[in-house]
Amino acid sequence: MVIVLKNQATKKQIDELINWLTRYDVKPNLVEGVHSRIIGLIGDTTAVDIESVQAKEIVEAVKRVQEPYKNANRRFHPEDTVIDVRGRKIGGGTLTVIAGPCSVETEEQTIKTAIAVKEAGATMLRGGAFKPRTSPYAFQGLGREGIEILRKAREETGLPIVTEIMDLSDIDLFDDVDIIQVGARNSQNFTLLKALGRCDKPVLLKRGLSGTLQELLMSAEYIMSEGNSKVILCERGIRTYETATRNVLDLASVPLLHQKTHLPVTVDPSHATGIASLIEPCALGAVAVGCDALEIEVHIDPPHAWSDGAQSLTPAQFAATMDKLRAMAEFCGRPIEK
Ligand code: PEP
Ligand code: MN
What we know:
The chain is an alpha/beta fold and about 350 residues long. It is about 30% helix and about 20% strand. The strands form 3 sheets. An 8-stranded parallel β-barrel has the order 7-8-9-10-11-12-13-14, surrounded by 5 helices. Helix 9 packs parallel to helix 10. The longest helix has 17 residues. It is elongated and about 75 Å long. The structure holds phosphoenolpyruvate and manganese (II) ion (MN). The site of phosphoenolpyruvate (PEP) has 11 residues, from loops.
C-alpha cells in the first residue's frame, strides 16, 4: 500500500501517522522525493482500513498495490484448489456439470429430472428448496421437504446435490447436502458467509446481482477467513443497462478470476441469460474460456415449471447440449468427469 502525503505535512504529523500505522502488522517506510513524500507499507496490508488512512489530515491519496484478499489470492496459493465432493472433483482440469430444476417441485419431477440429467452425463444435481423470489406471492420453495426430495434423488442416481441456503436459521437442514449454494442475493450476507466459513462443506458462491469481481472475492474471503477453504465461485451474469437478456454474462470474468484466485469457477448460463436458447452457446463459450463447472437449469416440462421455465432446457435439449459440451471440453483439454 502506498500513502501519498500532502505537501504541507510536517515532520511531527508524519511521525504521528507512522506511529498510528504500527497498529497494523506492517512496516511503514517513508520515502522523501524532491516534490512529494510517500509512505510505503510493507507486509500484509489486508487488515489495513484504507478509509481510516484516507481520513487522516495529511494524507493526499492511498493506493493498494496488493489485493485486500489473502486466502483466496493466487499469489499466496499458486496451485488450483480442487474440491472433492463425494469422490468427484471440482477444479483441477476437469469440467463438472451441475444440472437440474430451478425449484424442487415434486418428488416425481425431481427424480425424473435427476435420472434424465444423469443419463445425459451431468455429474451433479441442482434444485432449489428455498427460493429467493422477487415477489413474495411467487412460489417460495418446499423448504425442508425439498431437501428431503433431493436426498431421495441422490439415492436414486448417486448424483451429489447442490441447493441454496437463504437463511442461517435453516443451516441444520443442510447437514446432508453436498454443496451449499449462496445465491446472488445473499452474496454479501456477511453473517451467513461467516457461518458457512465455520462448517466443513463446499460452498458454491454466486456473484452478486451487481457485484464486482473484487466483491465476489471478498465474499469468498469471508468464508475462507473462518476456516472453510472449499469455495467454488459462480459467474451468473450481472445487471447492466441491457434488458435483452436477464443479466449480462461476463465471460471474461472466468480467465480473470483464474488469474486472481486458485478457487474453481462455475458459470451459470441459465440465470445469466434467462433464455433457454442462449444456454448452449453461452455454456460452450464458458467452457472455451476455461470454466471448471457449469450450472444449468433443466426441467421435464419447462412451460409448466413453478419457476424459471423460460430459462430451463428440456432433458432432450440438455442431452444435445451435453454432446456439444463434451466435444468442447475434450478440445479444451478439460474433459467432463465420468
Ligand atoms: C438459483 O440458482 O436458483 C438462483 C436463484 O440463482 P441466482 O442466485 O444466481 O439468481
Ligand atoms: Mn432459477
